[in-house]
Design goal:
- The longest helix is centred in the first third of the chain and has 25 residues.
- The mean pLDDT is 97.
- The chain folds into three domains: 202 residues, FAD/NAD(P)-binding domain (3-Layer(bba) Sandwich), CATH 3.50.50; 112 residues, FAD/NAD(P)-binding domain; 110 residues, FAD/NAD-linked reductase, C-terminal dimerisation domain (Enolase-like, domain 1, 2-Layer Sandwich), CATH 3.30.390.
- By secondary structure, it is an alpha/beta fold.
- It is built from 13 helices and 22 strands.
- The radius of gyration is 23 Å and the shape is globular.
- Bound molecules: flavin-adenine dinucleotide and 1,4-dihydronicotinamide adenine dinucleotide.
- Flavin-adenine dinucleotide (FAD) binds next to helix 1, strand 2, helix 2, helix 3 and helix 8.
């Protein structure tokens, strides 16, 4: 009889966990995945990437019809919002994709053990009332919303909500206050602004989108303001009170000063997410968390405990689905005795607003700290396709090493920046120089030509400006 029930037990079926399970099974390992949610796919498929993109896509159409973008192209319509149908198509997208993962589990003979898992020892995990043993256990439990002390989130009531509640609002709020000008606040704030809400974003720092290139952050502020969002930067929230179906949010300057109150029908708390480790019984296996409450691993995604591995949002690094997926593949390959590697220097990040904000590699500020650099920039206004499509906002910026010309970072603001950034990531993976990109033939007319021209600008020779 085998020593363990499984070669691999993955805890959590988000993009990290389900991908790890599939790759482990593909590599011939007997694999199970414990997931407590009703459906597979984790945060990303159920309440994150997918439903938010469904609402962003639909609301973009509404906005284009309502605010003149379609009329500019000779299409005159007065849109009528059917929010129930918009929500239904979001739920359909989620159902289709989560069901797809269930199909892939069956196809790859992965056992889905339903319930929340807790370690008994390093190779024994309790899931509900079942005890499961495995030679290797991969922790892929993801993350949950960081609460704001003193502000209670109640998604059912729908007045003070987190991202999950903000995806499900039953009516368009007249006034929405977003606490936190990061990715969630700007994406979901954009959804409801497009559908008619007055949106105020309260951000503690002096710019939106922490972690992105400074110039991109500055430009994002201008663009969101132009779109009608009210931005309260360098401002902190000190409290929120709910009375009936309204809320009052108290804010004051981050540096201290007079308090102000903001009235809202809906308040979205989006101040970050934190690793999900509660109830895992990590104390039983002697696994300690770092200061940020995350599980530390080595380069192979092995924890300090033999046979226990960790990937995705629960470990350090950007909390992104594609980072979790790549780590899922790598950890399975490492468990199988292969060499699974993730290059954490080249993980693209995208904010899926209109325009999109995307970047990969170093910001200009980080690159300057490391040594001499050259920077090439090209405005989307001078890109023929963007101009033709009436999409003038944005630019591409390429940061290269001054001596070797190797590309260190690429930043894009453009309607399809999320798609454009893939070629930049690939170029960087291949160790490209800006000259390599400048001499790569790009199809015309495409937004991506702006990447070629920004690369040409690194050495001062773009054609169209
Ligand atoms: P998760 O997806 O969080 O999955 C973890 C799973 O583990 C969950 O299903 C949970 O139920 C389960 N679990 C937890 N504890 C246990 C336990 N003890 N036993 C059994 N199961 C357990 N990222 C992007 O890259 N692009 C985007 O566009 C994007 N949009 C987002 C929009 C929103 C609104 C949010 C909230 C997040 C978004 N993200 C996006 C982030 C992305 O969702 C996460 O980075 C990604 O889901 C992390 O994957 P994971 O597998 O590590 O964890
Ligand atoms: P975030 O870290 O992106 O932004 C949080 C913002 O809140 C920061 O700008 C921070 O300065 C601000 N803040 C913190 N405390 C505050 C306070 N008291 N008052 C005012 N502002 C305050 O976190 P967010 O938006 O909650 O998203 C969580 C994670 O989910 C992100 O880190 C991201 O990785 C992931 N995500 C990714 C998406 C994508 O890839 N498109 C989409 C949505 C989420």
């Amino acid at each position: 009889m085998a020593e363990y029930d499984y070669d691999v037990l993955v805890i959590g079926a988000g993009p990290g966990g389900y991908v790890a399970a599939i790759r482990a099974a593909q590599l011939g390992l007997k694999t199970a995945c414990a997931e407590g949610r009703e459906t597979l796919g984790g945060t990303c498929l159920n309440v994150g990437c997918i439903p938010s993109k469904a609402m962003l896509h639909a609301s973009e159409y509404f906005d284009a019809a309502a605010n003149g973008a379609m009329a500019k192209m000779g299409i005159k319509v007065t849109p009528e919002l059917d929010l129930d149908t918009m929500h239904a198509q979001r739920r359909d997208a989620v159902k289709g994709l989560t069901g797809g993962i269930e199909f892939l589990f069956k196809k790859n003979k992965i056992d889905w053990i339903k319930g929340y898992a807790s370690f008994q020892d390093a190779h024994t995990v309790k899931v509900g009332d079942k005890s499961v043993t495995a030679k290797n256990v991969v922790i892929a439990t993801g993350s949950t919303v960081t609460p704001l002390p003193g502000i209670e989130i109640d998604n059912d009531k729908g007045v003070v909500v987190d991202s999950t509640g903000a995806l499900e609002l039953k009516a368009v709020p007249k006034k929405m206050v977003v606490i936190g000008g990061g990715v969630i606040g700007l994406e979901l704030g954009s959804v409801w602004r497009r559908l008619g809400a007055d949106v105020t974003v309260v951000e503690f720092l002096d710019q939106l989108l922490p972690g992105m290139d400074g110039e991109v952050r500055k430009e994002s502020g201008k663009i969101f303001k132009k779109q009608g969002m009210v931005l309260k930067l360098s401002t902190k929230v000190t409290g929120a009170a709910v009375a009936g179906d309204k809320a009052t949010v108290t804010v004051e300057p981050a540096a201290g000063g007079a308090a102000e109150t903001l009235e809202a029908d809906v308040v979205l708390v989006s101040i970050g997410r934190r690793a999900n480790t509660e109830g895992l019984g990590l104390d039983k296996i002697g696994l300690e968390l770092n200061q940020r409450g995350q599980i530390e691993t080595d380069h192979d995604f092995a924890t300090k405990v033999d046979g226990v591995w960790a990937i995705g949002d629960v470990i350090p690094g950007p909390m992104l689905a594609h980072k979790a997926e790549d780590e899922g593949i790598a950890v399975a390959e490492n468990i199988a005795g292969l060499t699974g590697i993730v290059n954490h220097d080249v993980i693209p990040g995208v904010v899926y607003t209109a325009p999109e904000f995307a970047g990969v590699g170093l910001t200009e500020e980080q690159a300057k700290e490391r040594g001499a650099i050259k920077v090439g920039k090209f405005p989307m206004l001078a890109n023929s396709r963007a101009k033709t499509n009436h999409e003038p906002d944005g630019f591409v910026k390429i940061i290269a090493d001054a001596e070797t010309d190797r590309v260190l970072g690429v930043w894009c603001i453009a309607t399809v920046a999320g798609t454009m950034i893939a070629q930049a990531a690939q170029a960087m993976e291949f160790g490209a120089t800006s000259e390599d990109i400048a001499y790569t033939c790009h199809a015309h007319p495409t937004h991506s030509e702006a990447i070629k021209e920004a690369a040409m600008a690194v050495t001062g020779k773009p054609i169209h400006v």
